[in-house]
């Protein structure tokens, strides 16, 4: 999906990072759109190969081989880059970049690829405030469930539970309660954020030094809440996929996080001593506060559509709306929250439930092919594909 947009974003980002930091990203020699490729198959990038022995993923999985300080240095350099709007970069000339395109994220990509979301429902603009961006993401959560087909729900009450979570999350976003803690950053500056920044994309030499960081296509200027949250990949597996549940993930993550924060603090001390970091630019403090306050889960739920249900009910709901009856199962808390919704929202929920129940029976498929697929179908069958 969105191949031209992804390649354009990745090239602009790599060249910006190459110019503005010492992070070892591949040098881009040339790139082009589909029309500029030799056989007009796809957009392309010609860039340096980075010779490496292993990656951070394998290092983190090797006992006695901690490399947290290496990752901390990269995160610190990214956090120093300040941008005026939320969105993707465009290279204006050899030495100038601007935020002019929508923030194309991995979750947005996945919603279209796997979640039956029409491409037209994704955001199309940049954002000048964190609060407006979080509200747009909250709207996207609702739109996602409305459009996701067939196996999106298990039962009428499962549908209501998911919708109540989404409507309450939107209510919090509209009232700016989700961004209240960092309200001074609402209008920026915003920080460069890579959705795909993870241990497997950090390449290491035989001596376990970072020699390259790759896969930047889903990188954009984002709210500071993203950068201030400690990285989920310290535990390798995402919390929503942890086999023993979210609480166990948090328990295991807590131990790994403290090691990482100590390494981050040590790297910050060195950077301040070397003169390329100000004391006010430390990340270890904000990351620790994000974990302690639970702000990490707000940003995580905002940007991860398929994990929003789990995270909302277990980490967000009671923080903002208070405790519930002690004997109420977590899956039934939504029933106590219905009164917090507006009458028209409750009506909208029941209309959506009826539609989703009908879809469970008909199992109608909806297809929104991209331009590449349309062109291929037209060449093979001599006609344009139907989109329903």
Characterise this structure.
It is globular, with a radius of gyration of 22 Å. Helix content is 47%, strand content 11%. A hairpin with a 2-residue loop joins β5 and β6. α8 runs antiparallel to α9. The longest helix has 29 residues. By secondary structure, the chain is mainly alpha-helical. It contains 14 helices and 10 strands. A 3-stranded antiparallel β-sheet has the order 3-8-9. A 3-stranded antiparallel β-sheet has the order 4-7-10. A two-stranded antiparallel ribbon has the order 1-2. The chain has a single domain, classed as Aminoglycoside 3'-phosphotransferase, Chain: A, domain 2.
Order of helices and strands: HEEEHHEEEHHHEEEEHHHHHHHH
Number of helices: 14
User: Which percent range fits the helix content?
Assistant: 40-55%
What does the average pLDDT come to?
A: 92
